[in-house]
Design brief:
- The protein is α/β, with parallel strands linked by helices and 308 residues long.
- It folds into 2 domains: 131 residues, Rossmann fold, CATH 3.40.50; 154 residues, Reverse transcriptase/Diguanylate cyclase domain (Alpha-Beta Plaits), CATH 3.30.70.270.
- The protein is built from 10 helices and 14 strands.
Length: 308
Amino acid sequence: MSDEYRILMVEDDSDDYYLTKQALAKDHHRRYDIDRAKSIRAASDYVSNRYDTILLDVVLPDSEGVNSILEIQNAFPNTPIIVLTGMGNDELGQSAIQLGVADYLSKSDMTPGLLSRCIRFSIERHNLINKLQNMALIDPLTLLSNRADFMQKLEHHLEYSLRYQTKLALCMVDLDGFKQVNDTLGHRAGDQVLQQFSTRLKQRLRKSDVLARLGGDEFVILMLGVGDEESSMQAAKEKMQAVAEPFLIYMDGQVHDIQLGMSIGICISGGTISTPDKLLHCADQAMYQVKKSGKNNIALHKSPPESA
């Protein structure tokens, strides 16, 4: 057998449950491990389990129709749902699809081949969608979070810090001398530098740090629970060790030792700095101040004193 699918079947009718099990048993290409819940409430006992798909009868003792779908979607938010019903209600089927279920089958029209194909296609489609969503949030070169993913995380953490009156620090990071690598050795060499630099930065992160590549040689680190100037500067100094050793670049059978620096600008949330854009802008200003004053250093953005 090439596949094994784990399925939760939410079905109160024992005859329909056993007929479905018999239909799937005729599929000789894969095995189906099926758990059964006879109601929405009973299904809630299985939320800690991982299922490849859910077969849902929408007419249940404690729920009916669209409400059954919404309850299961809420309990299993990342599991494809296939609606099975004996009602033959096309309007309900259309509503189910609009709510985001993977498929809709009438029990009277269901055959073993149709059911197994429906399950397989639903799972494959769901996995593909998840993969595409992950790809949209990952920088393909460094495998770090990209700008879109980071902005979502920054907004979430900043909202939390404002609500609970904590602070966070944002580091804008730029590699010094990176453009010369691209100009002299080419973009393939530059890509190697970015990949090695990303790995080194990740090795120096705390568990709560959030690292992303914004584009080019620009990176950003969100440091949670580091709200005062001294601890922010100390944490940033530890990140500077990522460029302490030269990068080893392999090009055309030769090894190139490349020594680069990094400029870091830090901005701490609080006061007038209460939005993601403001936090990024202030950290960016601090980073460019380092660039102007000799590079390979750290600068902390100083907010103007608040008016009395």
